[in-house]
Amino acid sequence: MREHRQNTMCLHAGYTPGNGDPRNIPIIQSTTFRYATGEQMGALFDLEASGYFYTRLQNPTNDKVAAKICALEGGTAAMLTSSGQAASFYAVFNIASCGDHIVSSSTIYGGTYNLFAVTMKRMGISFTFVDPDCTPEELNAAFQPNTKAVFGEAIANPALTVLDFEKFSKAAHDHGVPLIIDNTFATPINCKPLSLGADIVIHSTTKYMDGHANAVGGAIIDGGRFDWTRYPEKFPGLCTPDESYHGVTYTQRFGLEGAYITKATAQLMRDFGSVPAPMNTYLLNVGLETLHLRMPRHCENARRVAELLQSHPKVAWVRYPGLPSDPYYKLAQKYMPNGTCGVVSFGVKGGRKGAESFMAGLELASIATHVADAKTCVLHPASTTHRQMNDTELQNAGITPDLVRLSVGIEDIDDILEDVERALSQVTP
What we know:
Strand order of the largest sheet: 1-7-6-5-4-2-3
Helix content: 25-40%
Strand content: 5-15%
Largest sheet: 7 strands, mixed
Order of helices and strands: HHHEHEHEHEHEHEEHHHHEHEHEEHEH
Oligomer: single chain
Number of helices: 16
Structural class: alpha/beta
Radius of gyration: 22 Å
Number of strands: 12
């Protein structure tokens, strides 16, 4: 099939049915696949032939949907994981191990921060967290001889900082390491990190890509341009034989376009097994087919809500990169001129108590540990997703006690605005 525009790819990329084939991507709900001879299966285990033998490694449904996401991001190879958290872990652990170091933006999702600062620290991988607004000199100072990657979020959850791709990609590449970007909030509809200097893109597909809060999942996409072979001493897992997989050298066998994802699949998915169920992947694809329609509505509704909040006497501050008054508006226009996301962060006067009072007054919006789906939902991050952080860590992540994260859905905007105004009327600063 010839290359199509993005809106068409949301529906057709990754799968071209033949005569008499299912029009929709079929659910291959099978753990195993039959072969006539042991030699045929052995070739699969040796990575000398393509095919399927066990769903923990690969599954046709998963691969077709991964191919769609890969096309949307403009990558060369992609894989799905059972959650966005698994995607974050695999993306880093695929190239870093005990004794290595990662530079990360400090304004990232609380679960990702804990994964990096606590869990992966116990695995011997250290992280330096930098303010995304740091100077190039401050950013360069964070690198160490054992640094293996730079990590950031295109739009941070929930601080809504917009990463300066140019600054972070230059620093990463000057130090010979890839830039890994979490593009969950912007989605490839509004931002293409691989065209902006990133090398690896990840997603929590649980959010906008699924769109309906039906299925947890994640994705990793490789841009296929980072030359691992220039730095074989930094990336031995990709540039030297993998004795756990018959001595294959991934960059030699699969080239720059496929080495990273093949290693993550053959090695990490084999050993950790964070594979999505084919049924969940099918549900993800149902969401992907309308992603290009939903994102503009999310952004427009969020802009309207942000404008209301900005002028409301009971609101202390508003953060939304689609507002001209927002400190990240210029960066958003530079990297995401067609829109950002549907999430608005703001502070209610009265601090934590004011935030709790506001959320209790909502009727249409749900208080839920979720974000970025079709229905409007709300959360107080300091009490929930980021509650494991201390006050200093919260401040560095851009989380204040009064911060409310409002994920604006695609309901009628007048209903959403009425719900917000009614809830604010019950707040006593």
